Amino acid sequence: MIQRIQTIWTFLAVLAAVFLFITGQDVIISESLPVLNVLCVILVLIGLLSVFSYKNRKRQILLNNVSIIINVLLVGILIYWLLNLSGGIQIPEKGIEPIFPLIAIVCLFIANMYIKKDERLVKSVDRLR
Q: Which of UniProt's keywords are assigned here (predicted)?
């Protein structure tokens, strides 16, 4: 069902990827990081597939885990970009881009927690029959 709490958390992770795509455009213009756009689009597609595969909880957990791995990769790329970026306190060029994958990772962990909780509930009901 779409109205479950894990769907909301997964959708928040998708929104974080969309915000990263929007705010990451200046990163791509200033640096040549086209992989950032590609990973953001992949994250949005995986997230939406996870949201709409609510009947198959194991697939939903797998898709969320893949999304977590991609987000960790994005955090690494963006931290590397920030460390190599010129500027500092005097010239504030550094953005908030690494925050969005971190928010997505937390949201996906919480979504996986609720999906596993639903899975345990379904198994316990099946045992009673």
A: Membrane, Transmembrane, Transmembrane helix
The set of residues, in sequence order, having a beta carbon less than 8 Å from that of 35 and lying 6+ positions away, is 77
Kindly report the number of other CB atoms within 10 A of residue 127's CB atom. Answer: 7
Domain count, the chain: 1
Instruction: Note the pLDDT tens digit of each residue in 18-65.
Output: 988 888 776 655 565 678 888 889 999 999 999 888 888 899 999 999
Using alpha carbons only, how large is the chain's radius of gyration in Å? 17
Q: Which backbone phi and psi does 96 adopt, to 5 degrees?
A: -105, 15
Lookup result for tokens 């994250």: 43
End-to-end CA distance of the chain: 23
Residue showing tokens 């955090």 = 75
Task: Output the pTM of the full model.
Answer: 0.84
Contact criterion met (CB below 8 Å) for 17 and 37: no
Domain that holds residue 13: 5-128
